[in-house]
Amino acid sequence: MAAKQTPMMEQYLKIKAQYEDAFLFFRLGDFYELFFEDAKKAAKELEITLTSRGKGEESERIPMCGVPHHSAEQYISQLIKKGYKVAICEQTEDPQQAKGVVRREVVQVITPGTVMEGNIIEEKDNNYLLSITPFTEDKFGLAAVEMTTGEFLVTNISGGLEDLIHEVARFRPKEVVVSSSFPNEGQAMLKERLGAALSFEDELANDGLVNNLIEEIKDKELKNTCLQLIQYLFRTTKRSLDHIQRAFYYLPNDYMGIDVHSRRNLELIETLREKKKQGSLLWVLDETETAMGGRLLKQWIERPLISKTMIENRHQLVETLMERFFEREALKEQLNGVYDLERLSGKVAFGNVNARDMLQLKRSLQEVPRIFDTVKELGNEFALKLIEGVDDCHELKELLEKSIKEDPPLTITDGNVIKDGYHPELDNYRDAMRNGKTWIASLEQKERQETGIKSLKIGFNKVFGYYIEVTKANIPNLPEGRYERKQTLANAERYITEELKEKEALILEAEEKSGKLEYELFMEIREQVKAFIRPLQQLANVLSTIDVLQGFAEVAERNHYVKPVIKENGEVNIVDGRHPVVEQMIDSGDYVANDIQLNEGRGMLLITGPNMAGKSTYMRQLALISIMAQIGAFVPATEASLPIFDQIFTRIGAADDLAQGQSTFMVEMLETKNAVTRATKNSLILLDEIGRGTSTYDGMALAQSIMEYIHNEIGAKTLFSTHYHELTTLEEQLPLLKNVHVSAVEEDGKVVFLHKVIDGAADRSYGIYVAELADLPQQLISRAKTILHYFEQGTHREDHSSRNIDSAHQEIVQAREEVAPSITEMQLNLFGEELSPNKKELEKLTTKEKQVLDKLKSLNLLHITPIEAIQVLDELQRKIFKK
Ligand code: ADP
Ligand code: MG
C-alpha cells in the first residue's frame, strides 16, 4: 500500500479505518465494492470472483470484489449469518453535481444483533443484542434489546461469571456488546460457551437523549450498561430508535431458574443433537396463530413463572378457552388475520416501511375490535384485565383505511399508493392526468376518422413522449403537412402535433407532481404511524398473550391435558403423567402413563430398572410437566398437583459437550456442581445415571455422596436414576429416599419393557437382553450370560440388607476372580489342552507338588502383571526344589 492512492482510494482507506471490524461495502455506481483484505475474505465467504484494480504489476494492484446493489441484501445476509458485520457506505451526493470525489458516508452498520430485515430474521424467533458491564468481580449489569420488536430488558447479575452465562443463555444472543476492558475470561466464555459474536463499545450514549427509556433505572452503574448498549445502537444503526421500549427491569430470580445445561438437556426449544424444533417442548405447545405469539411462547418457555397468582391467571383463562369452543374458534380466525404488529412498528421507526406493510397494519387493526369483542364474551376476569384500557388504535386504522390503496406497489416512489379523495391536490393532478389521457384517446378516434387510416394509433415512450404512428403503407393517404415528423421506424413513421405536445406537458407535469406529492403524503402518514408505536406495542403484547393461551387450550384439548393445581405444601402428586414429547412421537395409546409422588417424607426417588425401561423419560416427564404448569399451560396427566419450583436442574443422559473440548465426565461433574451449589429446598433436581463416566467404584462412591449431600444439606426434590443396583440399600440410611423401579418382565428369555414405575428396587439388570435385542452375536451374548451368572453367585452370597458399597466392591472383585479362570479356560481350550490332571496321577504327587498345582490352578492369568508372574514362578520353584 506504499504507492500513492487515487483520491477515491484515499477516501476509502479513511472510511475503512473507522470500521476495522466490519466488511466495508463501498458504493461505486450500481455496485458495492470491497477492497484489500475485505475483498479477499468476502470473495471466499461469498464465493464471488476476486479481481484487482489499478495500474502496474499484479503485486501492486488492489484486490477487489463487488456485488450489484440491488442484490446486495442476500450477500449481506450471508455474512451476518456467519457472525460478521457489514458497514454500508453510500454516495451521499449526486455524482453529477459532485466536484472531485463523490462524498460517501457509512449510513448503517449491520451486525448479527442489530439486523432488521432479510432472511436472517426468523418470524417466530427473537434476536437479542446484549450489553454487559462488570461492576465488581462477580457483579454485572446486563441489558438486552430486541431490535425488530423494540423490547428492552435490564437486570443485575450477582453470582459471578457462571451466573452471568446462565442468564445470558436465556437470550440466545448472536452478539454481545462489552467494553474493551471486559475481563478476558468472560470474553472467552461468551464466545466459546454461547457462540456469541463480541462487539466492543467504550463510549456511553448521552443520557439526555434516551432518558425517557431508562428513567426507571435508578442505579448509576446499571444505567451505564444501558447507555453502552444504546451508544452501540446509535453507532451502528445511525437512525431513530423510536420503537425501543422503556427499559423493563427484572431479576433473574423473578422466574424459574433453568441453567444452560438443563435447558439443552430438557430440549425445551430445540432438540439436543439436531437443534430442531420438532421434538422439543416448544414444538408440542406451539399452536399460535401469529408470529408475535410464537415469539412470546418461546420467551415464556425460557422464563417459567414463580408467582402463583400469575400462573393461575393463565390456567384459568386456558380453562375458559377450553370450555368456550366457539369463541376459541373465532379468536383463532381473528388472530390469523393479525400480522406482526411488533415488527411492523419497528419498521416504521426504522424508516424502511412500505405501503404493503401499511396495509398489513390496517388489516391487523381491523381485526382488533372483533378480537376484543370475543374476549369480552369469554367473561374471564384475567382476559378482561388484559384488554382493559388498551388502545385499539382505531384512529390509526381509520387513517390507513382512507389513505392507502388496496393493491399498492412495493416501492413507495412509484406512485399509486394513496387513495383518491385523501388529498385534494393529488386528486387534481390525477384528474389532469385522467383528462389528458381521455383527450388523447379521443384525439386518436378523431384522427382515424378524418384521415381514414384505421391503423393510426397514439403511443407513448420515455424518449419522445406521445406520438401518432402511421404505418408505411398508409403514408400516401396522409394529407401533406398534417403532422410534424419525429421518428422513422422500419415500417412506420411517428409524428407529433403542437396540440399533442401541449397536452403531453400537462400530463407529465401532473404525473411528476402527483408522484412527488404521493411520496410526501406517505412520509407524512408514516410520521403519524410513528406516534402510535407505543400503543401498537402494547396491543401486540396483549394479542400475543391471548394467542399463546388459546394455543394452550388447543393443545390441551387435543392431547387431553389437565389443569394443574398449584399447592404451597411442596407436594408433587401426578396421576397418570405422560412425557409430552415422547407421547407424541410414539403411536397413540402406546404411552404408559405413570404416577409421581413426592412429599414431606418422600423427597427423593432412586430409580432403578433395565436400560431402555424408561427411567430418563420418567424423570424428564416431571421436569417438563412442572415447566408446562409454570408457564401457564395444562399438563399431560389425569390429575396433577404441583409446587412452584424455583429452579430445575438436570443432568440427563450422556450429552457430550465434546464440541466445547470438555470430557463427558467433566461435563457431568460441572452440571452436578451447578445443581448442588445452587439448588434450594424448593428446587427440583434430576440426576440421571450420575457417575457413569468413571470407573465403577469411583462412580458409585460419588453417586452415593451426592445423594447424601442433597438429602442432608439441600432437601431439594430429587429424582436419581442409577444402574448401580448397590445404591438401593441407601433407602435404609436416608429417610426421605425411596426406591422405585421401572418394571420389565422376561418372556421366553426376552425382556419386555412395561415402562411402568412402581415402588421398590429393581431386582436385576437387563442389559444383556437389551444387547440381545440389538442383535449382538449370539456367542457373545451367551458368554455374557455365563459371566453374569458368576457375578450373581458372588453377589447373592451375602445378606442383601446389610450390604454397602464396600461389601459390594468385595463381592464384585470376588465374582470377577471366580469367573476369570473360565476365561483362561476358554482360551486354552482353543488349543485342546486339559487343565485339570486326572485323579490317579494326582494321588502320586507329594503334598508340596499338590500345593504347587493348586497354586497354579488358582492363578488368574488375566489379573497378574509379568512381574507378579515371575514372583509366583520363583515361589513355586522354591517350594519344590529348595528347602
Ligand atoms: P432408560 O433411561 O431407562 O434407559 P429411556 O427413558 O431412555 O430409558 O426410554 C427408552 C425408550 O422407551 C424411550 O425412547 C421411549 O421410546 C420408550 N419409553 C420410555 N418411557 C415410556 C413410557 N412410559 N411409555 C412408552 N414408551 C416409553
Ligand atoms: Mg436413561
From TrEMBL:
Residues reported to bind ATP: G609, P610, N611, M612, A613, G614, K615, S616
Q: Which domain of life is it from?
A: Bacteria
Question: Per the database record, which ranges form the DNA mismatch repair proteins mutS family domain?
Answer: 683-699
Q: Which InterPro entries match?
A: DNA_mismatch_repair_MutS (IPR005748), DNA_mismatch_repair_MutS-lik_N (IPR007695), DNA_mismatch_repair_MutS/MSH (IPR017261), DNA_mismatch_repair_MutS_C (IPR000432), DNA_mismatch_repair_MutS_clamp (IPR007861), DNA_mismatch_repair_MutS_core (IPR007696), DNA_mismatch_repair_MutS_N (IPR016151), DNA_mismatch_repair_MutS_sf (IPR036187)
List the keywords (alphabetical): ATP-binding, DNA damage, DNA repair, DNA-binding, Nucleotide-binding
Whether Nucleotide-binding counts among this entry's keywords is yes
PROSITE patterns named in the record: DNA_MISMATCH_REPAIR_2
Keyword DNA-binding among record annotations: yes
User: SMART domains, per this entry?
Assistant: MUTSac (SM00534), MUTSd (SM00533)
NCBIfam families per record? mutS1 (TIGR01070), PRK05399.1 (NF003810)
* Similarity section: Belongs to the DNA mismatch repair MutS family.
Q: What does this protein do?
A: This protein is involved in the repair of mismatches in DNA. It is possible that it carries out the mismatch recognition step. This protein has a weak ATPase activity.
**Name of the protein in its database record:** DNA mismatch repair protein MutS
**Organism, as annotated:** Evansella vedderi
